[in-house]
Design brief:
single chain, binds zinc ion, 43% helix, mainly alpha, three-stranded antiparallel β-sheet, 3 helices
Length: 128
């Protein structure tokens, strides 16, 4: 019996998008900024990046870093810097950057101190 018609296989694209969504949401929750409208930024980004990866399948591993940057940009316009750097105790509060900007295995880094802070999705480990 062929069941392929009734079940939609979950391909690498859907898995990558699902993982990206989960990682960025975890970081938003860690900073207690996962308000409904902020979550909608994540959904918007995931929808745009689905289109993007469909055009360029080789970019599938880059989706988590890109969604993180999309959400960061959306938050900056609406609320302000996110996520704030937990490393630098003095001076102006500043946001962490995603590195690599276009690559697999994205991390939050402090560009000022040159410190790798946490993997995207693991900000909760450095918040207290
Ligand atoms: Zn810093």
């Amino acid at each position: 019996m062929d069941s392929s018609a009734s079940s939609v296989p979950v391909g690498p694209l859907e898995r990558a998008l699902h993982a990206a969504r989960a990682l960025v949401l975890a970081d938003l929750v860690a900073d207690e900024v996962a308000e409904p409208d902020v979550v909608s930024f994540v959904e918007d980004s995931v929808a745009q990046r689905r289109w993007w990866v469909e055009q360029w399948p080789e970019g599938v591993d880059f989706v988590a870093g890109l969604v993180a940057q999309d959400v960061q940009d959306a938050l900056l316009e609406r609320y302000g810097r996110w996520p704030l750097c937990p490393v630098c105790g003095s001076g102006d509060p500043h946001a962490l950057d995603v590195e690599p900007e276009l690559g697999a295995d994205p991390h939050w880094v402090c560009a000022k101190a040159g410190v790798l802070v946490a993997a995207v999705g693991s900000l909760g480990s450095v918040r207290r």
